[in-house]
Amino acid sequence: MPTVAISQETFNAEVLKADRPVLVDFWAPWCAPCRVQHPILEELSAELPQIKFAELNVDEHPGITGRYQIMSIPTIIIFKNGTAVAQLIGLQAKESLREKLKALR
Prior knowledge:
Helices cover 35% and strands 26% of the residues. The longest helix is centred in the middle third of the chain and has 16 residues, at 32-47. The protein is globular. It has helices spanning 11-16, 32-47, 62-67, 94-102; strands at 4-5, 22-27, 52-57, 75-80, 83-89.
């Protein structure tokens, strides 16, 4: 499944009220590690349809960025039942990220 772009307006519906776990990638277009992380997340979204993959541009949505105290990007937060259950800071390897996501079942 493709990654969903989320915003301040859609965050609650797309993430907090989702009926399955959601991985949110906090990123910015000027961030080189974010550009490396993106294709990894796209590949995993195709492999793990039971997980919703979303991305949030930190420059465009500072309210949510502040709410979750994002100080460094890329940051990935995994939500389950509306609660943040994991936060990963920095570029994540595909294999280790896959294992963390499979553990959510």
